[in-house]
């Protein structure tokens, strides 16, 4: 027995000798690694520059206030004092701590982009605030303020849903993440690579010592845009100025948008939406005033009306109807019709926007004066399918594929769409209502105590069912495409709904010979040393099969729009560059009309296409037309433009 015990003691002694003498260095290293944790050192995101290298979004160093794990022990004492210094509620700080999933050695971020005055107050009261730290982190900076806000978008701390989706990519709670615009679309490009700081911790994971930077952070890649800052300024200033001037006559004119494209490449030269917002407000958290201004505002300042909103195009659609008429040979450029100011369909008279009529009208004059009767006449000859075929060729009712989130497809309506939509309303909404009425009254009738009560309930039931059946009959009628639907479509009313970007691209196609480019905002991607790592080339999506001679007639009509007697002749009086355009006024039930305007220039050698809208701004020529004119003036560096509007306007 003693021999066995001695044997095991000898083995134990040998193992201890090995660990203490031969393996000491190995296990010291392992122990040291177990006692060291890595804290992220935030990397700056890549910059966003305009086509000429002007920085639209860059980075700055800001003070961040955080609370270490050790500070949590004294939270009841520390937080009221810190809340007073930061001028926030104590509840807000406690909520941030509660929602934080930081490990004991990681600081909990409580405030970002803190002014130096606040930092000084924290330092003055350092002895009262154990565990409160102030660090320097990169944050977004906007040299041009809220310029291009809807396009660049904003960043915020990553949301739980985004974290679950991107956790495998190394994201952690508290990381900044692109929420809208280019910041969102190019998140993986703009995001930097965090560095690491070594922190020594004790057995409970509490920080003991800062061992310094282990790996340095790497800035993300930068984007060079197709946008021209000066043109963008002109677009935004004109939108704001024009809307303000219109509100005396049109009080609901509070929003609008404008897009400018290079017709030779699809590059977006300017894109503005109004009202706008301050992207710098979001990373540090919105104040209640900002929540009211941006989130609860019925004018929806965060909404990019250039790509997300859809509108009836009004008379800007008439070129589609005109091209379809010439392409299908239901008319010739020289054929004339007489417009008395109305068009008869059965017993109904459709009135032209000009009640006096336009007299004798041919193709070019119909575009010049925006003659409804001419295009109604062509639509009856054509039928809806031929109009739809041409609309599709110009990309209407389909997404352009622009490099922005939230693009809408719009709607190029067809008889099939109308039937499917209204049949769905009958089957999914109205018929279930009848079934519910029957079910409800079946039980009530069964419980009726007298025959009189039973008859009364049956009469109630039948009356309600009859009301629903009347609605069903209306929708059944509406499942079929009617002749008036074709008339409405021909002049851009009815179910037509397109984005402003689609309208700009459609006009660019008229200008460039029918080439449908994919609009894009990024021209180049640079690495953090400024080297070009990707260059975006123009991408052709399709080519419209419209003969050049037909396009020339359309162009001539659009050119005459901006000449004396045209619907934008007064807007462009004295303008030194030849402009081709089309005005549009889209009816809105119960409110003032939307004003739309599309144009390209120069007429002989097109370079730029513009589309603009002022919601509820009345006539397109005297509202959106002013914005388009200002954008063209800035592009061609016209020093002074006529500010008066005279002559016919539609």
UniProtKB/TrEMBL annotation:
<dbReference type="GO" id="GO:0071972">
    <property type="term" value="F:peptidoglycan L,D-transpeptidase activity"/>
</dbReference>
<keyword id="KW-0472">Membrane</keyword>
<dbReference type="GO" id="GO:0008360">
    <property type="term" value="P:regulation of cell shape"/>
</dbReference>
<dbReference type="GO" id="GO:0009252">
    <property type="term" value="P:peptidoglycan biosynthetic process"/>
</dbReference>
<keyword id="KW-0378">Hydrolase</keyword>
<dbReference type="GO" id="GO:0008658">
    <property type="term" value="F:penicillin binding"/>
</dbReference>
<dbReference type="InterPro" id="IPR050515">
    <property type="entry name" value="Beta-lactam/transpept"/>
</dbReference>
<dbReference type="GO" id="GO:0006508">
    <property type="term" value="P:proteolysis"/>
</dbReference>
<dbReference type="InterPro" id="IPR001460">
    <property type="entry name" value="PCN-bd_Tpept"/>
</dbReference>
<dbReference type="InterPro" id="IPR005311">
    <property type="entry name" value="PBP_dimer"/>
</dbReference>
<keyword id="KW-0573">Peptidoglycan synthesis</keyword>
<dbReference type="GO" id="GO:0005886">
    <property type="term" value="C:plasma membrane"/>
</dbReference>
<feature type="domain" description="Penicillin-binding protein transpeptidase">
    <location>
        <begin position="256"/>
        <end position="632"/>
    </location>
</feature>
<dbReference type="GO" id="GO:0071555">
    <property type="term" value="P:cell wall organization"/>
</dbReference>
<protein>
    <submittedName>
        <fullName>Peptidoglycan biosynthesis transpeptidase</fullName>
    </submittedName>
</protein>
<keyword id="KW-0812">Transmembrane</keyword>
<keyword id="KW-0133">Cell shape</keyword>
<dbReference type="InterPro" id="IPR012338">
    <property type="entry name" value="Beta-lactam/transpept-like"/>
</dbReference>
<keyword id="KW-0645">Protease</keyword>
<keyword id="KW-1133">Transmembrane helix</keyword>
<dbReference type="InterPro" id="IPR036138">
    <property type="entry name" value="PBP_dimer_sf"/>
</dbReference>
<dbReference type="GO" id="GO:0009002">
    <property type="term" value="F:serine-type D-Ala-D-Ala carboxypeptidase activity"/>
</dbReference>
<dbReference type="Pfam" id="PF00905">
    <property type="entry name" value="Transpeptidase"/>
</dbReference>
<feature type="domain" description="Penicillin-binding protein dimerisation">
    <location>
        <begin position="41"/>
        <end position="210"/>
    </location>
</feature>
<keyword id="KW-0961">Cell wall biogenesis/degradation</keyword>
<dbReference type="InterPro" id="IPR017790">
    <property type="entry name" value="Penicillin-binding_protein_2"/>
</dbReference>
<dbReference type="Pfam" id="PF03717">
    <property type="entry name" value="PBP_dimer"/>
</dbReference>
<keyword id="KW-1003">Cell membrane</keyword>
<comment type="similarity">
    <text>Belongs to the transpeptidase family.</text>
</comment>
<keyword id="KW-0997">Cell inner membrane</keyword>
């Amino acid at each position: 027995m003693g021999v066995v015990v001695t044997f095991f003691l000898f083995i134990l002694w040998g193992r201890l000798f090995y660990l203490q003498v031969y393996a000491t260095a190995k296990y010291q290293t392992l122990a040291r690694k177990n006692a060291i944790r890595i804290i992220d050192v935030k990397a700056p995101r890549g910059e966003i520059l305009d086509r000429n290298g002007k920085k639209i979004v860059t980075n700055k160093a800001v003070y961040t206030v955080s609370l270490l794990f050790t500070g949590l022990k004294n939270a009841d004492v520390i937080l009221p004092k810190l809340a007073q210094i930061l001028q926030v509620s104590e509840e807000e700080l406690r909520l941030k701590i509660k929602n934080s999933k930081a490990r004991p050695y990681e600081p909990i971020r409580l405030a970002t982009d803190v002014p130096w005055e606040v930092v000084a107050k924290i330092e003055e009261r350092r002895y009262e605030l154990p565990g409160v730290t102030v660090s320097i982190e990169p944050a977004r900076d906007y040299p041009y303020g809220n310029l291009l806000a809807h396009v660049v978008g904003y960043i915020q701390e990553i949301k739980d849903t985004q974290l679950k989706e991107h956790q495998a990519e190394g994201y952690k709670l508290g990381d900044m993440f692109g929420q809208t615009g280019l910041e969102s679309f190019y998140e993986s490009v703009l995001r930097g690579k965090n560095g690491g700081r070594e922190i020594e911790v004790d057995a409970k994971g509490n920080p003991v010592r800062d061992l310094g930077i282990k790996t340095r952070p790497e800035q993300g890649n930068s984007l060079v845009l197709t946008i021209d800052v000066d043109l963008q300024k002109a677009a935004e200033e004109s939108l704001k100025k024009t809307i303000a001037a219109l509100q005396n006559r049109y009080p609901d004119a509070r929003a609008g948008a404008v897009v400018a494209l290079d017709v030779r490449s699809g590059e977006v030269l300017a894109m503005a939406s109004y009202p706008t917002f301050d992207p710098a407000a979001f990373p540090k958290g919105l104040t209640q005033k900002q929540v009211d201004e941006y989130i609860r505002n019925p004018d929806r300042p965060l909404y990019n009306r250039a790509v997300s909103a859809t509108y009836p195009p009004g008379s800007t659609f008439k070129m589609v109807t005109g091209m379809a008429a010439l392409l299908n040979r239901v008319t010739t450029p020289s054929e004339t019709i007489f417009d008395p100011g109305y068009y008869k369909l059965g017993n109904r008279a459709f009135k032209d926007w000009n009640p006096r009529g336009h007299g004798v009208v041919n193709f070019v004059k119909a575009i010049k004066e925006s003659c409804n009767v001419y295009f109604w006449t062509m639509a009856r000859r054509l039928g809806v399918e031929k109009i739809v075929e041409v609309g599709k060729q110009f990309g209407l009712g389909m997404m352009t594929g622009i490099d922005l989130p939230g693009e809408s497809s719009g709607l190029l309506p067809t008889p099939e769409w109308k039937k499917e939509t209204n049949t769905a309303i009958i089957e999914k909404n109205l018929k279930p209502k009848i079934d519910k009425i029957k079910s409800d009254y079946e039980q009530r009738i069964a419980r009726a105590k007298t025959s009189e009560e039973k008859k009364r309930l049956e009469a109630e039931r039948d009356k309600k069912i009859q009301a629903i059946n009347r609605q069903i009959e209306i929708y059944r009628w509406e499942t079929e495409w009617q002749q008036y639907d074709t008339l409405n479509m021909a002049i851009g009313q009815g179910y037509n709904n397109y984005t402003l970007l689609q309208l700009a691209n459609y006009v660019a196609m008229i200008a460039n010979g029918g080439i449908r480019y994919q609009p894009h905002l990024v021209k180049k991607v640079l690495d953090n040393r400024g080297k070009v790592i990707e260059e975006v080339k123009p991408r052709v999506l399709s080519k419209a099969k419209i003969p050049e001679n037909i396009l020339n007639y359309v162009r001539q009509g659009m050119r005459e729009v901006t000449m004396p007697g045209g619907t934008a002749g007064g807007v462009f009086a004295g303008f030194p560059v030849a402009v081709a355009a089309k005005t549009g006024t889209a009816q809105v039930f119960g409110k003032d009309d939307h004003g739309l305007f599309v144009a390209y220039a120069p007429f002989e050698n097109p370079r730029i296409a513009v589309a603009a809208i002022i919601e509820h701004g009345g006539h397109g020529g005297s509202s959106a037309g002013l914005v388009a004119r200002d954008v063209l003036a800035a592009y061609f560096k016209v020093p002074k433009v006529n500010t008066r509007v005279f002559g016919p306007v539609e």
